[in-house]
Specification:
Helix 1 packs antiparallel against helix 5. The chain has a domain of 94 residues. The protein is 80% helix and 4% strand. The chain is mainly α. The protein has a two-stranded antiparallel ribbon.
Length: 135
């Protein structure tokens, strides 16, 4: 169980790292339509709950939030993998498996293939960790 928890945690950290690198690399449009879209996302401002933002602000913020979630899950999971309390490990692994499964489902609808595959692998590793906890 501890090995599966560690694998899931390292996959989470890897996914967060790759996502953060892609975030800071930025989007590279290859067609005029993509350049126009990105320009509009960066320039057009709108009221977002009383605060003026661009779509690119929201896009970037959600991207950073995704990386942060993955880092926190990974580092917290590594810490919990050392716990002697099987119940705590099982409950955390179950919560992480559920979270990774939801991210995978969202990925199938909205994300590119690499993060979807990685979150799917995370879901499997955390599910195995939850199933084996306390054994």
């Amino acid at each position: 169980m501890r090995t599966a928890m560690r694998i899931g945690s390292w996959l989470s950290i890897l996914t967060g790292t790759l996502h953060l690198l892609a975030h800071f690399k930025g989007l590279e449009p290859t067609r005029d339509a993509e350049r126009t879209m990105l320009d509009m996302m960066a320039r057009l401002r709108f009221d977002a709950g009383g605060v003026e933002r661009t779509m690119m602000d929201i896009f970037g913020g959600l991207s950073l939030a995704f990386s942060t979630l993955l880092f926190l899950m990974g580092f917290h999971g590594l810490r919990l993998a050392r716990s002697e309390d099987g119940t705590v490990r099982r409950e955390a692994a179950f919560a992480y498996a559920t979270t990774a499964a939801v991210l995978t489902g969202l990925g199938l609808l909205y994300f590119p293939t690499p993060p979807t595959v990685l979150t799917g692998l995370m879901a499997v590793a955390f599910a195995v960790a939850a199933a084996r906890a306390g054994r």
